[in-house]
User: Fold these one by one.
Assistant:
Number 1:
Amino acid sequence: LYQGDLNVGQFLNLDATSAGGTSATAVADFTNFSTINLTSDFDARDVLLTRAGSITNAAGAIINFNGTSTATTTDRRINSELINAGLIDVQVDSVSTRIGSAGANHENTGTYLNRNSQSVVTFVGSSFVNEAGGVLSGIGEYDFSATGLTSNGTIDPGLSAGTLILDGDIQLATGSDLLIELGGLVQGTEHDFIDVLDTIELDGNLSIDFIDGFESAVTTSDSFTILSSSSLTGTFDGYLEGDLIATRDGLGWFTISYAGNNVTLSNFSSVPEPTGFAVSLLALSWLLIGRRKTRKA
């Protein structure tokens, strides 16, 4: 049994052993202000933290899912509604990272980070809301089949560029943000890719950034499918089919398409550099402005 908040400087370490798993039950709702580690280094040895109500992970606090066991029979699990304002750090290559219990309504204003391409984080309950300020990031998969996902915050795939899989019905709400990095032509490794296994409703912002100097190599003929789904409705805020969308760094713009339940960027046009004549005119105009100010003085 576990009772009381976990205060700064304290640690709750739940470690499986070769002899068996580890289970702790919180006797009341509690808040983590420090660090919780759920660790299994042994196949089929589970680590469980249970609370019939809710667990809060406070801002600045960390919950780590870790250990070397990669067996699908190894379960690292929080059996509780989870209110996260800190960091949920999934460091394992395992399909058995689970968060939630029947009827749980999860809220995130902090960060979820999934570090492994083979890792699946499964949510159990009734709903999951990524609130404003919340971030879902990394690679691998987040499974919202039981809860659905409503995102008012940020979805940031990749470590940097990478593939993020979202399972379940996904809604990107007004004011949400999808961050996409483009560093090359290879989907999911050189540029970000979101693979939605069920349905997605688009709204909110799409932010596009170049990485690794790719802005100097991208051409008009290049095309980037950054999102794919089984069913897609809606559009990003302000961008209909065939509209131009600028990169966040202002280096150019793409044509956006939603055809075939995909989101595709193509027909890149760079922002032209000022010509020597234009630069001379700009310099002359600033010189004249400076002279006028001097005469007024």
Number 2:
Amino acid sequence: MNKKITLILLFAFAAVSSYSQTVFKYSGVQYTGTGNYTAIRSKVLDSQVYSSPLGIEIDTAGRIYITNEHNIFLLFNGKSKLMAGYNLDPVDGSDYKNGTGIASRFSQPAGIAVNRSTNSMVIVDMGNNLIRSLSPYLNSFTDETAGFIAGTKSFVGGWADGAVATAKFNVPDGVAVNTNGDIYVSDRDGHCIRKISGGNVTTIAGTHGTSGNKDGTGIAATFMNPRGLYLESSTSLLVADYGNQRIRRINLTTNAVTTVISSGLDGPSDLCVVNGQMYITDLLSVKKY
């Protein structure tokens, strides 16, 4: 995901408010159980309820997307609109269905990244073990359409490289998209990194089903529950290796994996780089290197 833009905007806001370090609610109402859910389609509200927001991304025009427990929201100056997915109580909302607006269904959408060549969104549908798409934004009155990119629907997950329609993922989590539209996915419970390109899914690093902490090239390398991804460049992908408490780098030309940070982390889940500084969401804090 292109988190660099996100962080730049946050820094710009911080510069204006440099005398304050207060954390405050920006959007939404906390979900507190069955009966307290007011996701309303086709309206921009400050009272939309979030039940489990996991991912955040900015499209090419600066609009902020949020992946929630079973749906996708778009933020407008602190208010939000349900763009796709289930709009009733999340207890009953887990499902998979392509479609427009509330006709579509997700199950724990997590990582989200913008395909900058099309301005469409790539969404990791973690609970369904699928990689999904969301059509480009048109206007605040038009719902967006969810589609299929890769994977086989399954609640238990699996692993298979090959054509996108038959490939399998095992709890995919993070996602990044390069300028050519190639998609990189962290297959969290498969302990490997996958690539979607040209209608096919391949494993570029790690060995499915084998966790470990070993540098090497391609399947010779091992990970443990990799999560967040960040594209440093067209040839370099950073990986938040959650289970190993490390940050790893994949050379996308050779698929060689090296360790960037080997100590001082408790459980990195995501990361980005701004002005040469690496920012990491760690288990109990945010860290900078």
